[in-house]
Design goal:
- The protein is of the alpha+beta class.
- It has seven helices and seven strands, in the order ααββαβββααβααβ.
- It is 76% helix and 6% strand.
- Strands 2-1-5-4-3 form a five-stranded antiparallel sheet. A two-stranded parallel ribbon has the order 6-7.
- Belongs to the methyl-accepting chemotaxis (MCP) protein family.
């Protein structure tokens, strides 16, 4: 689920909500249908109860001796046979042998209907008598309808019958239910139409909501890809928004700024590298000039030494320049004393021969190690520079992550407070539902008392005879209203009971959500501490690496200079070793002049 695209997750969520809405609509239609039929059946039952109460009144009066049972039955049958209720209800009765006892149509009185059924063969009259004797019951059958084709027996009708035991008869009334189907069909069409309209509006709203979420996310995704490709010129969209998308856009812009800074840093490093290369080039030129001058010195001295190699101790060194004037003077003085010291040098020649080889080998190894160390230090310096840049970027990213985690922690705490308020509000709803249930109970009791009062009023009106007929009709209407109020109060009470159960379940779910949010908040706080420590450590590493990088750069410069000097020393040692070898060979062949030779015999070596 978490790997699905956000747009698909939103579509699935909306689809689930629509399916739940459709299921709720279906259940509502089904409940409405059952309620309509139940009201019709309850109407039949209450009407039969009213007729039975009239018969009971006459029977009680007959038992009291006011008149005979036959007179009471005649009066009761006449009054009940004239009673009507909407839309087209009337009363009739069967004895226990299914013989018509009374009916508004006097022609049907005395006819036996035992064993006679409707067009489907259902013996509904026998069933009514059986159910009536068992305490009352409903029967559905089909038959013709007044005002319609008398040969059309397809109209559904519902009847209710209940026995009046003192007179051994079952009082029956019924109503056609085809109008209920039309009412139900109209209600279904209306409900489905409204649901379809709401569904279409919800789809349109969902389309715009999903589009307003996925389109900015795609734009930010494209911008992130561009920044990942080192594109710092692209404009980051939606940075002016204050929601999560705006936060992502701001973070992307910050990342772009970091890439831009890295590019600037790379440019500065390249500039510094060029300056360092220029400085090295200048040093190389200076070293080259120095090497040329040294070569001239060595060449001049070499010429003198060449003369000395042939045993000419009268040669003197030519001009070597002001820098090496002291060397020239020292060389000439040495030649002056050379003849004097030649005897003693010849004695030390063997020792010098051994020492010159050690000097040559040591100088060569020193130059090699110095060059290797310089190369290693240069590579180490470059690696430290790259590591410093990486650690600095890590520190910036850790600081940004710490800020983000802190923001998420604040939002989690706010969500926890909102869930607590939601629990309190739903508990208030549950208490209000309990109060409403008590009020509906009072209404139900009032309706019951009103029904009893209307029943008593109907009995009194029946006793009053013709003068009480109007009052009897009013009492009947009051009873119907009271019965409807009782039925409505009962239905509302059931609905509130179901709502209270759902509210209680909602309180539990919201409580669980609050606990989950609290655990998430604690985890986010721990993550915030860890990220803060990482950010602090990364900053300390950045500072330390900068110091190390600076020290290594200075060490690299010194090592480069040492390498150059080692190369010069090695070259000089090599030349000196060669000249020393030659000198030792020459010493053995040197011949000193006689004591009175004089200085005029000396000559310069050019």
């Amino acid at each position: 689920m978490k790997n699905l695209r956000i747009s698909l997750q939103l579509i699935l969520l909306i689809g689930g909500l629509m399916a739940a809405f459709a299921a709720a609509t279906y259940l509502q239609v089904r409940s409405s249908t059952e309620t309509i039929y139940q009201q019709r059946y309850e109407l039949l039952r209450t009407q039969v109860e009213s007729a039975l109460s009239v018969m009971k009144d006459y029977n009680d009066r007959a038992v009291a001796g006011e008149f005979s049972v036959e007179e009471a039955q005649k009066l009761a049958y006449g009054q009940v046979g004239k009673m009507r209720f909407e839309p087209d209800g009337y009363f009739f009765a069967y004895d226990y042998d299914v013989v018509m006892v009374f009916h508004p149509n006097a022609k049907l009185v005395g006819n036996s209907s035992k064993g006679k059924g409707d067009t489907n063969g259902f013996l509904y009259r026998d069933a009514l008598v059986k159910l009536g004797r068992a305490g009352g019951g409903f029967v559905e059958f089909i038959g013709p309808k007044p005002g319609q084709d008398p040969n059309d027996y397809s109209f559904p009708k519902a009847a209710y019958g209940k026995a009046f035991e003192p007179w051994n008869l079952v009082v029956v009334t019924g109503l056609y239910t085809d109008d209920l189907k039309a009412e139900i069909r109209s209600s279904i069409i209306k409900t489905v139409g409204m649901s379809a309209g709401i569904f279409v509006l919800a789809l349109i709203a969902a389309y715009f909501v999903i589009r307003n979420i996925t389109k900015p996310l795609k734009a930010i995704h494209d911008a992130l890809e561009a920044v990942a490709d080192e594109n710092v010129d692209i404009a980051i969209p939606h940075t002016d928004l204050s929601n999560e998308i705006g936060m992502m856009a701001t973070a992307t812009k910050s990342l772009q700024d970091k890439v831009r800074e890295r590019h600037a840093l790379a440019a500065r490093q390249e500039e510094q590298q060029r300056e360092l290369d220029g400085e090295r080039s200048q040093n190389a030129e200076a070293q080259l000039a120095e090497a040329r001058q040294q070569a001239h010195v060595v060449s001049t001295i070499g010429q003198s030494l060449e003369q000395l190699a042939h045993g000419d101790l009268t040669v003197r060194c030519a001009d070597l320049g002001p820098k090496y004037a002291a060397l020239r003077d020292n060389f000439n003085d040495a030649l002056a004393r050379l003849e004097e010291a030649m005897a003693r040098v010849n004695l030390k020649g063997n020792d010098i021969a051994v020492s010159k080889e050690e000097i040559r080998r040591a100088s060569g190894e020193l130059a090699t190690r110095t060059e290797r160390q310089a190369a290693n230090l240069e590579e180490t310096s470059a690696a430290l520079d790259e590591l410093t840049v990486a650690v600095r970027q890590t520190a910036d990213g850790a600081r940004e992550a710490a800020n983000r985690v802190g923001t998420v922690s604040d939002e989690a705490r706010q969500s926890d407070e909102i869930v607590t308020k939601a629990i309190n509000a739903m508990s208030g709803i549950e208490q209000s539902s309990a109060e409403i249930t008590k009020i509906i109970g009072v209404i139900d009791e009032i309706a019951f008392q009103t029904n009893l009062l209307a029943l008593n009023a109907g009995v009194e009106a029946a006793r009053a005879g013709e003068s009480g007929k109007g009052f009897a009709v009013v009492a009947q209407e009051v009873r119907e209203l009271a019965q409807r109020s009782a039925a409505a109060a009962k239905e509302i009470k059931d609905q509130i009971a179901r709502s209270s159960a759902q509210v209680e379940q909602g309180v539990q779910l919201v409580g669980q959500t609050g606990e989950a949010l609290k655990r998430i908040s604690d985890q986010i706080a721990s993550a915030n501490d860890i990220v803060s420590k990482i950010s602090h450590s990364a900053q300390e590493q950045d500072t330390t690496l900068r110091s190390i990088s600076s020290a290594v750069n200075q060490l690299d410069t010194a090592t480069q200079q040492n390498a150059a000097m080692a190369e010069e020393t090695t070259a000089s040692a090599e030349v000196l070793a060669n000249d020393t070898g030659d000198l030792l060979e020459l010493i053995r062949s040197f011949k000193t002049s006689q004591a009175g030779a004089g200085r005029e015999q000396y000559r310069l070596a050019s």
